[in-house]
Amino acid sequence: EIIDGDSGDTSTNIAAQTVDRLISQGADAIVGAASSSVTLTVIDKVTSAGVAMVSPANTSTELTDYPDNGLYFRTAPPDTLQGQVLADQALADGNQSICIMALQDAYGEGLADVVDQVFTENGGEVTEKIIYDPKAASFEAEVGQCAATNSDAIVLIGFDESKKILQEMIKQGVGPQDTQLYLVDGNLSNTLAEGLPAGIMEGVKGTTPGAAPSDEFRASLLETDPNLVDFSYAAESYDAVILIALAAQQAGDDSGASIAANIASVSGQNDEGESCNTFEACKALLEDGKDINYEGQSGPINLDDNGDPARAAMGVYVFGADNTNSRQDTVVADVPAAS
């Protein structure tokens, strides 16, 4: 049985209300929340109730060693991987200095720290790391501070407020046609340039966790929602559900504790078990008494002792002259440990 619920954002109490309702209705596992900061507001309530929690989109490093009673997992890799790939890309593009602008929350600050560390450790200079209030009425001062650094590139880590920041960057002459801009999964959206001049985003790059969705998977998603245009975290969401189902199947029990005790195993922890990539194929192997390694739509997964993917895919995207982005490269790598 599937029970729908909204995880909201940190400006509302929607997530707490949703969690209360799901627990009262006997949910054994919760897929979500979408935002790392939202998860941090409800994770104690979920895990105290003995419910397994699997997020398809949380990337904050703060959740890696969170005291979750062994009940929290995620199919998106922590930002130790995204930060490394983004910093490596900026260096590979020939940038020797960057200014980082990041929203003030667990996701923004954690990812900014990783980009800062990797970029500087590999010989680059982070001229400024500006942490801003995403609810601010204006970002004129923050953009001005970044512009004053005359950096080779700007890394913008944010969500919907990024559109206002981008407009301010253009106004102050550090827009994407003046200074190389890098985005992240939170703001890598084709809606970012709506209402802006044609071609303004050309050359902007960004990163988003996940393997390239297959044509078959995209078609299946579009059958469910023909209006779908953004496939971000679709694969991770799908894999979260499949892993929960396979964990229950292996345990022979669908309680939150049983799911949590088996989910790393069916994901191919330590890269062990026989590979399979559909629920049906994996279920058949389990019924034959075999250990399995679910290789999902999002990549290898291989959950570790913290419930994080130990190996994952990261997509690198670039915007074209039509102000829309497309995948330029996919990096599959072991997820670096948090320092």
Structure, described:
The two termini are 40 Å apart. Strands 4, 5, 6, 7, 8, 11, 12 and 13 form an eight-stranded mixed beta sheet that branches. The protein has a three-stranded parallel beta sheet with strand order 1-2-3, with helices on both faces. A two-stranded parallel sheet has the order 9-10. It is built from ten helices and 13 strands. It has 339 residues and is of the alpha/beta class.
Indicate the structural class. Answer: alpha/beta
Beta-strand percentage range: 15-25%
Arithmetic mean pLDDT: 95
Rounded to the nearest angstrom, the radius of gyration is: 20 Å
Largest sheet entry: 8 strands, mixed
Kindly report how far apart the N and C termini lie.
Answer: 40 Å
**DSSP summary, beta strand count:** 13
Shape: globular
Helix content: 25-40%
Number of helices: 10
- Which blocks of ≥5 consecutive residues have pLDDT under 50? none
Order of helices and strands: HEHEEHEHEHEHEEHHHEHEEEE
